[in-house]
């Protein structure tokens, strides 16, 4: 299996622009998670899905953030408009019912 | 009080020594416990998981769980410089609508020096 796939790996954008991060989970995993990691706040859960349905979005910082999972093999995290404080590494992870989560390589986002 | 607490370190041990990493959690209903290793600039990778009280060994790694004390630890025997990384403790929520969700600690930075 190829593991969790994320794109792009690096994104540099200017404040106010829309950013879309993409994730393909491991086939057969029915949970998908979006995390953000910064030095100050560590690894934070933003939102997670079960069988393509959002279960808990309490970690989404504000309305500028949105996430979708249109099918079992694809999810997006969108930030519109982006701000410099959104600069972080964004990880996608997927898991099977055993709760063992496997992380993608991450997207390093820089908002200028 | 944070839900999952770890000493941030850095923890520095000489090569060949035992490294001991500790984690406490606040949710008494937590059922599954995970240790992840994260190298600088990389994503977290799973090292071990443990569900039952006691010890679980996998090669040079031993996870220890004490649910009564709400404490989980990771021992690394014969530490190598390649073990230098940040170690993240993660705990599942008790269930219900939070099933499947992991809560991570802030991580402990381990440095193994030759």
Main sheet attributes: strand count, strand direction, barrel closure of chain B: 6 strands, mixed
Report the order of strands and helices of chain A: EEEEEEEEEEE
* Tally of separate helices of chain B: 0
Radius of gyration of chain B: 14 Å
Kindly describe this structure.
The complex is a heterodimer of chains A (112) and B (114). Chain A is mainly β. In chain A, 0% of the residues lie in helices and 56% in strands. Chain A has strands spanning 5-7, 10-13, 19-24, 31-38, 42-50, 53-56, 65-71, 74-79, 88-95, 101-103, 107-111. In chain A, the strands form 2 sheets. In chain A, strands 2, 4, 5, 6, 9, 10 and 11 form a 7-stranded mixed sheet that branches. Chain A has a 4-stranded antiparallel sheet with strand order 1-3-8-7, with no helix packed on it. Chain A is globular. The N and C termini of chain A lie far apart (36 Å). In chain B, the strands form 2 sheets. In chain B, strands 2, 4, 5, 9, 10 and 11 form a 6-stranded mixed sheet that branches. Chain B has a 5-stranded antiparallel sheet with strand order 1-3-8-7-6, with no helix packed on it. Chain B is an all-beta fold. Chain B is globular. Chain B contains no helices and 11 strands.
């Amino acid at each position: 299996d190829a593991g969790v796939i994320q794109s792009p790996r690096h994104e540099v954008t200017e404040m106010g622009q829309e950013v879309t991060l993409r994730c393909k989970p491991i086939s057969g995993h029915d949970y998908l998670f979006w995390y953000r990691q910064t030095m100050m706040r560590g690894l934070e859960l933003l939102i997670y899905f079960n069988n393509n349905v959002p279960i808990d979005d309490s970690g989404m910082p504000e309305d500028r953030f949105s996430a979708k999972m249109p099918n079992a093999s694809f999810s997006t995290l969108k930030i519109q408009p982006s701000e410099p404080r959104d600069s972080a590494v964004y990880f996608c992870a997927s898991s099977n019912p055993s709760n063992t989560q496997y992380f993608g390589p991450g997207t390093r986002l820089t908002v200028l | 009080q944070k839900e999952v607490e770890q000493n941030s370190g850095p923890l520095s041990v000489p090569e060949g020594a035992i490294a001991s990493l500790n984690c406490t959690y606040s949710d008494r209903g937590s059922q599954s416990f995970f240790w992840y290793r994260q190298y600088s600039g990389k994503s977290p990778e799973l090292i071990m998981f443990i569900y039952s009280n006691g010890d679980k060994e996998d090669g040079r790694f031993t996870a220890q769980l004490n649910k009564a004390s709400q404490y989980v630890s990771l021992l690394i025997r014969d530490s190598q410089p390649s073990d230098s990384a940040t170690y993240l403790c993660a705990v599942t929520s008790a269930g219900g609508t939070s099933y499947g969700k992991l809560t991570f600690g802030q991580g402990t930075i381990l440095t193994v020096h030759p």
